[in-house]
Amino acid sequence: MCTCPKKLSLNPYTGCVHGCLYCYASSYIPRFSECRPKLGLLKSLRREVRCVEPGTLVSMSNSSDPYPPMERNLQLTRECIKILRERGMRLQLVTKSDIISRDAELLEAMDCVVSITITTLCDELANLLEPGAPMPERRLDTIRLLRGKGIPVSARLDPIIPGINEPEIEGLVSSVCNAGALHITTSTYKARPDSWQRLKDAFPEESEALGAMFEKGSRICGSRYLPEQVRFALMQKTKEAATRNGATFSTCREGFSKEPGVCCDGSHLARKKM
Q: pLDDT confidence of 6, banded at 50, 70, 90?
């Protein structure tokens, strides 16, 4: 069950070129590996935003990264930010890309939070898990740059996959917090048929033990969940690491209890200038 606060979702692009093995969106968006800009978006956004109350939370993006490589030239996301800023919207940007650094001067003047997804510190593992995404150090550098501008940043350690990136939990939390992340959002890998096949192909040995875990778990809304005790232990380990590093903590679709005043997606930071 999703526990995110009410918000509007805006995806300037359809599809994503990051090629993440664990991606859930590829199971329901046709041609997901082909990134396409949404035609006529800016005209529609200028019209529709007039009907939305200033201060409303808008999330970019919940399925397709708002900063694909083509954004460098198209600047579609950048123009969307300008429109939302003029209307006084609160903004959450979720990305794996360092291209967002270009827009820091726009974000400085907004009630916003940037959520950077980072699942490993190892370049070799990142190349397998997320072959089209920027390397981990570039994402850490992005956190540092944004925090240097006073822009609140949360880190999504998402997903945690037992036997693959799970051994890195404490190092990941420490690294993103040292870079400046104020909040940690995490979840365990939820297997869907297409993502599970990709993971098995890339990690044939590790997937045997992982598959045995899923057999003891449950199926919810078409996804395989790890056993509850496994998920709880991984979330607890991440929470303890976040607390030691001075960050707030939340989980996504895990049923873990929330801290008072903390949104599971980190959007509570969009109200603060830090």
A: confident
pLDDT single digits (tens) 217-257:
999 988 999 999 999 999 999 999 999 999 999 998 887 77
Domain boundaries along the sequence of the chain: 8-271
Which tokens is 219 given?
A: 């199926």
Which H, E and C letters describe the chain, residue by residue? CCCCCCCEECCCEECCCCCCCCCCHHHCCCCCCCCEECCCHHHHHHHHHHHCCCCCEEEECCCCCCCCCCHHHHCHHHHHHHHHHHHCCEEEEEECCHHHHHHHHHHCCCCEEEEEECCCCCHHHHHHHCCCCCCHHHHHHHHHHHHHCCCCEEEEEEEECCCCCHHHHHHHHHHHHHHCCCEEEEEECCECHHHHHHHHHHCHHHHHHHHHHHHCCEEECCEEECCHHHHHHHHHHHHHHHHHCCCEEEECCCCCCCCCCCCCCCHHHHHCCC
Please provide the CATH number assigned to the domain covering 8-271.
3.80.30.30
**Looking at residue 3, what is its pLDDT?**
61
